[in-house]
Design a protein that fits this description.
Elements lengths: L1 E11 L9 E6 L3 E6 L3 H18 L9 H20 L3 E10 L9 E2 L3 E5 L4 H7 L1 H12 L7 E13 L4 E6 L15 H16 L4 H11 L5 H28 L8 H15 L5 H12 L4 H22 L11 H16 L5 E2 L5 E2 L1
Parallel strand pairs: 6-8
Antiparallel strand pairs: 1-4, 1-7, 2-3, 3-4, 5-6, 7-8, 9-10
Amino acid sequence: MRYTYVEAWSIIGIVLQEETQLCELCRSDCCRFVLTRDPNALLTIIDRGLAIGHIMLAGGGLGRPDVDTALLSTIDEIQAERKKKTLNQAVLVIEAQGDIEASLKEHYREFDEFIVTWDAIDKQALAKTHRSDINAIKVALAFESQVPPRFTQLTRGVYLTDDVRGKTVYSFTISGSANMFVSKSLATSGADQISARYRLLRQAKDIEKVQRLFSEMADYRNDRLKAFLSGWAALEILIAWLFKTYEEVFLSPFTEAGQRPLRERFLARIKDVMKDKYRLTDKFVAVATVLFPDASDAVDEDLKKFSDLKKVRDSVYHGEEFSEQDLPIHEISTLLMKYLLAFMERPNQTIASSGSAEI
């Protein structure tokens, strides 16, 4: 199939002349770079994909009888919001095209003008293919400004063209997507659970910082990088605190055999030597083992997720290239909630008003 990858960036520091609405900067075999005052005309196909995602996100589904009207209304909202953000600023629109191996999976929905499918392409890999071109055009633009310009990403997306059907194909990612959620209605029992967990969390003084960072991660007003860093910090603090809480429980099987005093003495020495040498991943293993003693497969999967998240965190901290849009905020949030909830619901555990956990 043929793909079209699109990004749009507003620019502070460069303006178009009054009479200029659109200026094609340059084009190559695979890329086209345009400066415009009105990006909406160039982004309509991408905006339709965003609108489809918004409708699915809201839980309305694409089977509703008024889906066409809903799509048009959502596109208008997306474009009106963009117009408010850009005002008369110049906007850089990048269009990249090429051929890609893609096929419609078993589960896809076909409509009059477009097709919706799942995991047909690797969007992150595709975006990385054009990253050098995009970086180069931004630097080239910067040389034309009297002050260092600032770029703000307005949108990005990719769509495919099915030549056989003559339709646009939108591929959504359901495996670990940070953007595909299903809304859940709240029952009365759910409200009761929220109340009980709220009281428990208010007593857990030692993890107030975790709760604050989770709030910052979940705040949609924050950019994705801040959300990712807040979420990772919350997860790291939680695991470190839980390790202190559960270290004795994790090591206790080693003291339950014969010669218990000697075993305890040996373990005390081990703990003293290792207290500053445990890696964060080691602590995660210990915490997971205590919280989920009968779920070895699930713990292995969680460990892989945790290790993958740490690799992303390390690459960000070390200045390696990353895509803010692709930061795994959903994955961090899911893991954080799972382990915080498991701690709160662990049998025979109370949280004292001082904030310490008693096992």
